[in-house]
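Researcher: Checking consistency across runs. Here is MORN repeat protein again:
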Amino acid sequence: MKQPALGGGQYDEAGNECKIGRWIELSDKFKATCQVRQYGEYINGKKVGRWDSYWHYEKLYKHIGGGLYDESGNECKIGRWIEITEEFNSTSQVSYHGDYKCGKKVGRWDIWYQKNYHDLKYEKIGGGSYDEVGNGCKIGKWTEVIHDFSDFSQVTYLGEYKNGKKIGLWEIQYEAKKIGSGSYDEQGDMIKIGKWIELHDPFTDSFQIIYEGEFKRGQKVGTWIKKERYENHLDFKEVDVIKYAD
């Protein structure tokens, strides 16, 4: 028996490869654990109106995001949106909730997370504000998640933005507990300065390594200590010493 199509839609008959009408599109990283589809409409090859994202996993099929594009054909996001991360899957259900104005993020944006796909309850784990001018510029206090945040790597960064640049002290948390920190310069050049405790990338339940040392004008200097701990252990133990030029 022929399998049903995962998605699709129509192109114009003029041979311009221009998408028209209703479409079902697959996410860029569509796979077994990330079966996300976007539903919406094209006019003259441009997304318009309401677009929604749905996730299919095992017997679960639910709405996980979406929002509005302007009707003028500029593919300009407007109003309230829920966006999912590029890494969205069964163990990394992270979404961003906030407003667009003329295609730019404005005002408060919140980060939500669901640990278990069988549990329909989401938890707010972070967020912050963009300027109201429409420059898409982060301002004030933020709590951000690591790029591959998941059930097994719940790392967040807490600190301040000024004109879209990190400044001052930033704290690193793992499962809501402080595990590292360090400072950026106050001039807005995002240069790391002074003492830092950084996390190895990746940092997961079963692979927990940190590095303690000093930055000078954005460069690591002097002695850095590599430490490791095993899952369910509270303390890190020194495993290596790394030397950098002063």
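Researcher: Does this match what you'd expect to see?
Model: One thing to look at in this run: The mean pLDDT is 93.
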